[in-house]
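Have a think about this chain, tokens included, and walk me through the fold.
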Amino acid sequence: MPVLVELRGVSKHYRRADTGETVVAVEDVSLDVHQGEVLGVIGYSGAGKSTLVRLVNALELPSAGSVTVAGQELTAIPERDRRLARRRIGMIFQQFNLFRSRTIAGNVAYPLKVAGVPKAERDRRVAELLDFVGLLDRAYAYPEQLSGGQKQRVGIARALASNPELLLADEATSALDPETTSEVLALLRRVNRELGVTIIVITHEMDAVRQIADRVAVMEQGRVVEVGDVYDVFSTPKTDAAQRFVRTALHDRPSPETLTRLRERHPGRLVTVQITDEAGLQNRIDAAFRAAGVTAELVYGGVGEIRERRIGSLTYELSAADTTAIDRAVAALRADGVTTDEEAAA
């Protein structure tokens, strides 16, 4: 796919006014965003992801490096041209940022009015967008009359008003409950699939990435430490940061506290087996246990789907009269390409 957003060697440093100390928000980030994809950018608080999104739409300029959107290097043009370029970039926020004194229709119409779009065309576009987000019947309500999910739908409609090529969602679901979050993410996926808008989702919630993203970039201490297809990052995370996020989303591995409770009830060896979408994988796991004469009891685990592909892990208590049989079973699985981990005692 063509590249829509290109970051090369981007850094952003601040100098604190009170101490004169240099703060590194983003450091040497090179990243491509492909046209038509949904890229999730994930990191804990302070990782630099919100600064990164402000660099993408040139609300801030980098201390070093270049930012190019749709072939235009935003870091090399005057501010007047950057303002025009931002019209091709939509933005939605955690706190919605709606005008309380304007109706829902008035909020969506605002960027069109600023751009000088004639009233008849504004009205047509506003009705089209509110119908798309399922709020046409609330056009003359005010933000205070809406739920959080409805407010975010208005925010999405407003961000789409100027037909952007790129939509930036900065922690757009962090203030919402899980059910509403899923609804908003489903709407963003519709925006991507039906309207062809490229989306960058900034979040600290790996579950949001699982639901919507095609690829994911993991940030830590201002750097992008891992980038890949969302399924690949979930199934084989290469960095500690990615592994921590994956555990929070899949809930498929026992926590230290859960492992302690499991050991009280299951004295055998506890082995966790990774589950992927490989055909016949479960049969191969069962066959390896049988061939080695091992009794396997499933004691913990979780298996879900990412982009219609199975992923997760299962933890077994393995028992055998001859303990070397367990070693043979685990070795056979590993030789067959199955990822296994023994849950060591605390």
Q: What stands out?
A: The longest strand covers residues 3-15. Residues 43 and 230 are 15 Å apart (CA to CA). The chain has two domains: 3-249, 256-342. The chain has a mean pLDDT of 92.
